[in-house]
Amino acid sequence: MSSELLAPLDLAFWHLESAGHPMHLGALARFDPAPGDPAGLLPLLAERAAAIPRLRTRVRDVLLPVGGARWSVDKSFDVHRHVHHLRLPEDGDFAAEATRLAGELMERPLERGLPPWEMYLLTGAPGGPFAVLVKLHHALADGMRAVAIGAGIFDEIADARTGTSTAHRAAPRRPRPVPPRSWLPGPWQVSGVADAVRGRAEDLGRALGVGASVLGASVVRAGRHDPHGTPALAADSSGTRRLATAELDLEEVRRVRRVSGGTANDVLLAVVAGALRHWLLERGDPLPAADPCALVPVSRRRPGSPPDCGNKFSAYLLDLPLGDPDPLSRLAAVRRGMDRNKAAGPSRGPGAVAVLADQLPPLAHRFGTPLAGGAARMLFDLLVTNVPLPRSTLSLAGSPLRALYPMAPLARGQALALAMSPYGGRVHTGLVADGRALPDLDRLAHALHTELAELVKATDRSPGS
Questions:
Q1: Phi and psi angles of residue 176, each rounded to the nearest 5 degrees, phi first
Q2: Are 58 and 124 within one domain?
Q3: Is residue 358 in a domain?
Q4: Is the Cβ–Cβ distance between 73 and 57 less than 8 Å?
Q5: Which of 86, 97, 291, 426 has the greatest count of CB atoms below 10 A from its CB?
Q6: Cβ count near 184 (within 10 Å)
């Protein structure tokens, strides 16, 4: 593939990273037992990863634009520097051991001089289950593109890629006719300059609008900041990572949605709010005077858009109603908050920091992004994202995929991020936390099950159910 400049938002994630704040996404995929020793799958995994063009590119600085960077093919690419095999104790709980190890591996930043990704084949006893951990730098892709890239290791996607004929490739674009040059500006030249100026003015207007919204939200949150509430979510970063997983029944989520209205994502956000409430009360912490605010990413990819990589998303800010003891009332509050966000749109609300970043020049990202990294704490307390997966059944070397837990990076000043992916009738949830701030992350994962059960029970008792 030819080299290409990093888009402004990709460049922001590249410069946002530090040793204590790695900016990679992740996913832990668990598979049914493979015949024989699953360690033999390592060559297949390496072969399929090497066949994905984007995974052979690395970031290189450029002279122009000043402060910019470019994706370029790594001419010395060696897939074996990226794909590794780790064997877990054969007599332990494989799922628990794989989850623990994945959390530790998520602590380690990716090597910046190489294509920014890694894969780990995690195996236990011969004939037993196995897992694959994928790490992709956030500059490489957002959640949806990460799924599209990482899915290349599965049988179904790899077979389809191998069987694709040249007939399916996009037809080459015909070169546009270039008007004859003249020492006087013709109408086409004046029009082009006018269009460029108009487009830049519109970009500036959007940036100012988003900037005002973000600033306003920061002022409001600073005014209602509760220094005594939810200390675990605002703890200083230790650089450690802990992973916990949960699987929710997708049919139960849909059952609640059919009665309550709204979307399945509204239900899941309400489940997160209730789980946080249960978790805080169980550990003896006071409920915060001000509800914690979640950043909820929203894709800006249009259906049928070209399969480009990089980041194309905005976000909503949503107060999670922890203070309300009624699960149905919490759900109603979440629905109202999300309806307000959708009415305002993802490109102008206070959560649209990604849109603002997309309007800034490369030099601003190179020097300003590291300094502005701590602003995340001013805007939100945790991240909650929903990452869609292919609906078809997936497998690796014939072994069915049983679970895929997505993992989101922690922004500076954040201690918790939840990512959810529906697949196979379950909502697979990956909870990534600062290991020192949330040592009891497993209890929060369990609280997700507790809250969904209470929400289903309350829904069944409600009129009209």
A1: -75, 140
A2: yes
A3: yes
A4: yes
A5: 291
A6: 5
